[in-house]
From TrEMBL:
This is Putative zn 2cys6 transcription factor protein. Gene3D superfamilies: Electron Transport, Fmn-binding Protein, Chain A. Residues 48-113 form the Pyridoxamine 5'-phosphate oxidase Alr4036 family FMN-binding domain. InterPro entries: Pyridox_Oxase_Alr4036_FMN-bd, Split_barrel_FMN-bd. It holds the Pfam family Pyridox_oxase_2. It comes from Rosellinia necatrix. Residues 35-57, 149-173 are annotated as: Disordered. GO terms for molecular function: FMN binding.
């Protein structure tokens, strides 16, 4: 839960929002890491030789796609066409950019990739006193994957009672991402590095959802002074209502896209629900099919790389780094250092 002393707005916030307002549409490139699941030999299967392992494609690869920024979390832009109930204004604010996506898209799985225990694989494997020293990296990768997510689609993830696929249908995530914004008019590039969290319909009803709520609230703040706060409004503010408001802010045609056939599915294969259709406008904000597929993703930044190219003779660059409580800083402060471009 958030501390009694709310974090201060970061020094980059106002300028970033001003630049975002010049972008039509507010596009950014989202970079993630894709893990290619390899078969791990088990039982009496013969382990592949080192040359055979080297011939395999890399176990992970970069992925990038263009997304639309939907504003900052808890600060959704008003739209007179949006009939969704809204949260009370001025209760919360944040510095966390959002975008929307379909849970059936490949990138959603990539937002859970950080669960793999890379530290276990890279450090213990080099320790001469460790029993894992003689194990190759692939084995350690599979061990970490098995502990954190389950080896197969149907295998239960330890401690959750859910398979990896079931978990991805709910709230969670936490993978490392990078979002690149190029504001053409001011000629400034913003590279935002941090972690992404997926907000699903279970955001307030599941243990995973409540964990995400607590984490995001730790990076949110109450803009009002304590004496000006309204306890009734604070109690009414809901993550689930905010997700519905995001859905309502989309155009009817965009809402209907969440009823489309599964993205990436071959068109020669059958689709559940009868004949597949595209371009279905949707007015119902609680349509069960569309809402089951709709997700809001919140990026929690830890570092911003700001490069100003407006003056070709004197480009400038700053690195903004989030520093938590301690280290001589207040709650949630940022440190800014100007570096050579």
């Amino acid at each position: 839960m958030p501390s009694s002393s709310s974090p201060s707005p970061p020094p980059w916030r106002d300028l970033f929002l001003a630049h975002l307002a010049t972008m039509d549409p507010p596009e950014f490139a989202l970079g993630t890491v894709r893990h290619h699941h390899r078969h791990a030999p088990t039982g009496r299967e013969r382990r592949p030789s080192s040359s055979a392992v080297a011939a395999l494609p890399p176990p992970y690869a970069p992925r990038v796609r263009t997304c639309i920024c939907r504003g900052l979390w808890a600060a959704l832009d008003p739209d007179p066409r949006n009939d969704a109930p809204r949260n009370p204004a001025g209760v919360w604010e944040s510095d966390l950019p959002t975008f929307t996506t379909d849970v059936r898209m490949d990138k959603v799985e990539e937002l859970w990739e950080s669960a793999i225990d890379l530290d276990f694989r890279t450090t213990r494997g080099n320790d001469p006193s460790s029993p894992t020293t003689l194990k190759v990296g692939e084995e350690l990768w599979e061990e970490g994957l098995a502990r954190m997510r389950g080896k197969g689609k149907g295998e239960t993830v330890r401690g959750t009672g859910k398979s990896a696929d079931e978990r991805r249908k709910g709230s969670g995530g936490g993978a490392a991402v990078e979002a690149l914004f190029w504001a053409r008019q001011p000629s400034v590039q913003w590279r935002m590095r941090g972690r992404a969290y997926v907000l699903a319909p279970d955001i307030e009803s599941s243990p995973e959802g409540r964990e995400v709520v607590a984490l995001l609230k730790s990076r949110m703040r109450r803009p009002r002074r304590a004496e000006d706060r309204n306890e009734k409004e604070e109690g009414e503010w809901s993550f689930a209502r905010e997700i519905t408001a995001h859905f309502g802010n989309l155009s009817p045609l965009m809402r209907g896209s969440f009823r489309n056939p599964p993205p990436g599915r071959p068109m020669t294969l059958s689709v559940d629900g009868g004949a597949p259709r595209l371009g279905q406008p949707l007015d119902d904000l609680e349509d069960p099919v569309a809402r089951a597929n709709f997700r809001v993703v919140v990026i929690v930044p830890d570092e911003l790389d700001q490069t100003d190219l407006s003056d070709p003779e004197r480009p400038r660059r700053w690195i903004h780094t989030y520093v938590g409580a301690g280290y001589g800083k207040g709650p949630g402060e940022w440190e800014t250092v100007e570096v050579w471009p």
